[in-house]
Request: fold
Amino acid sequence: MTDWSRVKSIFQELIELPQAERGDALGAHCGDDAEVRRAVEALLEAHDRAGSFMQQPPTPQVDAVSPDIGVPDVPLTETQIDGYRLLDVIGEGGYGTVYKAQQETPVRREVALKVIKAGMDTHEVIRRFESERQTLALMSHPNVAGVLDAGTTAQGRPYFVMEFVDGRMLTAYCDEKRLSINGRLNLLIQVCDAIQHAHQKGVIHRDIKPGNVMVVDDGTGSPRVKVIDFGIAKAIEGQAAERGPATMQGMLIGTPEYMSPEQADPGRVDIDTRTDIYSLGVLLYELITGTLPFSSNTLRSKGLAEIQRIVREETPPRPSRRLTVMGQSQAVERDRQSGTEPHVQQRLNEIARKRGMDARELRRRVSGELDWIVMKCLEKERGRRYESASDIAAEIRRFMRNEPVQAGPPGAGYRVAKFVRRHRSPVLAALVTVVALVASFVLALVGLQRATAARRDADVQRDVARQKAEDAQSAARRAEAINAFLQDILASADPRVSAQKDLTVRAAVERALAQVDAGELKDEPLIEAAVRLTIARSLSGLADYDAAVAQADRARAIYEEALGPKAAEVGRAWHQRGSAEKLAGQAAAAEGDLRRALSIFESQDEPDALAIAGCRNDLALTMVDQGRLDDAEPLLREVYAFAMGPLGTRTELQPEAVNNLGSLLMARGAFAEAERFFREAVEVNEARHGGQHPNLATNLDNLAQSLQGQGKHDDALPVFERALKMRRALFGNEHPDVATTLHNVAVLHYVRGELPPCEAALRESLDIFRSIYGLAHADTLTVNDSLVSVLGTARKLDEAETLLLAAYRAAKDAADITVARKKALAARLAQLYNAKGDAAAGTQWQQEADRYITQPASQPTSEAPPE
Amino acid sequence: MSDSDTTAAGGSDASGPVTQLLDAAASGKAEAAAQLFPIVYDQLVLLARAQMQHEAVGHTLQATALVHEAYLRLIGSEQVSWASRAQFFHAAANAMRKILIDYARKRGRLKRGGDRQRVPFEVLEQKAESTPDELLSLDASLDQLEKIDERAASIVKLRFFAGLGVEDTAAALNISERTVKREWAFARAWMFQFLQAESE
Reply:
């Protein structure tokens, strides 16, 4: 029995000695106890060889969180960061240094690498980042620069890796280009879009300022905004917030000019999306007036407490007032001391000139509605700010179209949608405004109970509000829980979810539905309709298409009664219904509904171009489903043209539009042209998501098919394999997308005459489809057909027979299976029996097949023309 | 107080009882410590499940993040004593270990399909993900270590499974930071050579 305590103490003593002295010490300590000596030697060897063994928690992705023990304390320069080659310093900020760097693996690309300066608790910063990494990964938006990675430098400083944005800072860009007010507002709308997207994904930026908003101008006349640094402020500031006011200074030193009152409140920890709304207001203020609500000089000359007080308590002058004061202060000054440099007036003129107007024009332009919009963003009480970034964007659009804005002059009351005004419950107000988002769905659930109570009694409601404010900590936690929950809902709104995942989401949806059905919202029909529509979307994502259609119908009925049959909302309900039907494989019915939706969208006084494009896209896809490629192509080309259009919002459709058009071209046999589109799509998605993403996998699968179509079989195979690997990694093995790629690979093997791998892939594919969709589904039947063919080629006729018979039985009475398909199945059975030498069965099945010839005309409609 | 108040309605906010249990455990009440484990365990499983649902790419339980998140959820920002905090992390380390190992067992069973080769032990030095097999071997070696040196084993649990830093580990065990480092070095070397001997 080894004396481990002795071994241990010798070992521990020896490892603190230099290598050279260990041998002697070992002899001295162990004497002639060979067993102890061997054990110590083995441990010493292990100690030297263990490298990073157990240096990381048992978590595959947290390589950044390696504990600090055992890391050699050798000074290294910062040019050495694992996997990245630092190229240039591109910025120095309050938090650290930003480098342009070259990433070597897994993809070679340029990135921006932000190394946080010393003094932060690396472990904590990285931990916070890790805890938000998955949320950040959900963001995918043309105006959002993704945060790709985080880690620790050899010197123990945290670093963040971001998409490299080759652009100019927002304010500098606007001034250099002398952008008009409208030009600037258009860029701010893109910023709002980015922030809105982040909020929908549960990410709060917390540090919106010109330095974090870049403009990329490729000279095409449509500059693109990129908001950077998502998630970083939280990772860095979180710890400060957690440790209380003492370290708040570190946070305040960041950017007090753009900080919201709640961020400036040392006792406050429940920062929510509305902090970003405030900062967007500061940005807007700066873009239009060239000055800040509270000037940097004022703020930075003050002590910490004073800065906090100013931000929290003082109301900044509204933008037009600021411009007026600038003009006057100069006048006063000039009167008093003639000969003094009239620098303020000069500055005002300069500001106006950079906006392509003179000072008076600028003041006039800003005065009134722009003032109101800005001041609504800058409300101290966050409940009075805009509810969402998209609200700001919508408001700015109204302003640019010369329509009345929703913000009003301060003090004159706020024009909110009238059913909100009737009940000023903050919860309800939030609910109403955000129901349009899937995100709101959960909020709605949380708020329902409270909203109902609040309606009963205004006092109770105020108490609830106060209590809510006081209960900040738990609210923050709840918000987190909601965020987490919300991701599920968002993920599930996508049909590409694995079957297992659905359980909890389904439960949530059902609970929501139960609450709505119980009449929780019966006094608020429009909210009820919006919630039902959201539920319909989720149900559709959960593949419960009948229920989705039913909910869409109920929403539509409510909208029709309240708003009339031509309202855009009614169109949305039709669209949702059509989408669900399309997914359910009922293409003809879907087409009808989508056409209704489209005609409603198009007949609006102010047609919503994005809604129209989205609807056209879906409509075209139902046509493709029905084999009407000629009808679909012009629609998809229109959608593509629109998606490539100048506005940031429009490009959301881009990856889908590129992919769909490519698919259509492929279906028409234009493989070379299709290849071009798919390569474009791969490029777009690789740039956006790096190595792995569901859309990227789809693009790759399609690209491989288009290569195969051109006979480039050797090129196609590795692309398929990459797609397959990616899909397995993303969805697990039991997923329709995995089954689809398996089938496609099988077809390629078949073409190449490689039957064994072909058969194996088909079997796996069939198993997956059968377990997910059942046999009576177009996709399952397609794979079944393929496998039957392969088995036929391999003369495994008995198994082929079994498969075909089962398929025919399942398909025969299924409403969603086309007549042509049923006929083809029967005909194949006839062929099979003939091949087996059973002529009688062959004839019998041929007759069965022939039965379908006389029926197709009467199949789609039961209405017989009168004689 | 009505009867219904005493039931953990939905279990959404159990921070009160947890803090009490922590205090009790910290003052040496063994049964309190025992009661703590299932609460922390449930919370961790819940968090892990939620995380895995968002995580399309295989299994990436982030033990450290989970433990700390569980701490925030169960304790919130309430000031708890160091001793109580230590109790929590003890419970969390044990719970996390159980979760990871259960998961590795399950996954090892499911994944054994020839689609993944057993990674040679040396490869662990890369920052590659730890495979279920490796985790199971690690766990087995930890059991062995516990037999010969309980303190070294508990340091492994706290540092490795609960993701505590040296400082926190020292506080949790009421020993000096230097001791933590020395014990950790021993535990690591011991487990490493144990596993190497196993794989030979």
In short: Helices of chain B lie at 15-26, 30-54, 63-75, 82-111, 132-148, 150-161, 166-173, 177-199.
